[in-house]
Amino acid sequence: MLRSALSAIFKSLPAQKVKAHCDGPCGVYDPASARVAAEAVLSMTKKLKEMAPPQGNDSAAWAAYNNTFSRYVAIKEDQAKETKKELLILWTDYFKPEHLATYPDLHDTFWKAAKLCSACKVNIDQQKAEELMKSVEKIHHMFWKSKGRADTWTTAS
Is there a cis peptide before residue 117, judged by omega within 30 degrees of 0? Predict the structure, then answer.
C-alpha cells in the first residue's frame, strides 16, 4: 500500500530531464577529448585532400571512391561537432568568471575555436583544421595552468 501511494505521488510530480557531463558537479574536466576529436578532423581533412578520383567510367572504382570520400566527410563532420561539444563543456562548465583575470581573452579564444569547428564541418580546409588544433592547444595550456599544472601538449598523430 505504501509502495503504491509513493508511486502515485512520484508519477504526479513533474520530472526534469537531465543530461550527463556535466550538469552535475562531477569536477572531471580534461581538454584531451577535444584534442583527440580535433586531431581526427585534421587527419580526415588531410586524407580527403589526398584522395584522387578514379579515371574513366569504372563504376566499381567510382563506388569505392564515393564510399570512402563520404565516410571521411562524415567522420570529419562528426569529430568537428564533438570537438565543439567538448570545448563548450570546458568553456561553460569549467571556466569561471575568476579565470577572466588570468585569461582576459578566454571568451574570444573559445568563441573563435567554436567557429573553427563549424568551418571545419562545412569545408575541406586544412588551414582551418590546423588553426583548430592550435586553438585547442592554447585552451589545453589555459586549462592546465588554471589547475596549477603544466601538462605537456602531446598529439596522437
Answer: no
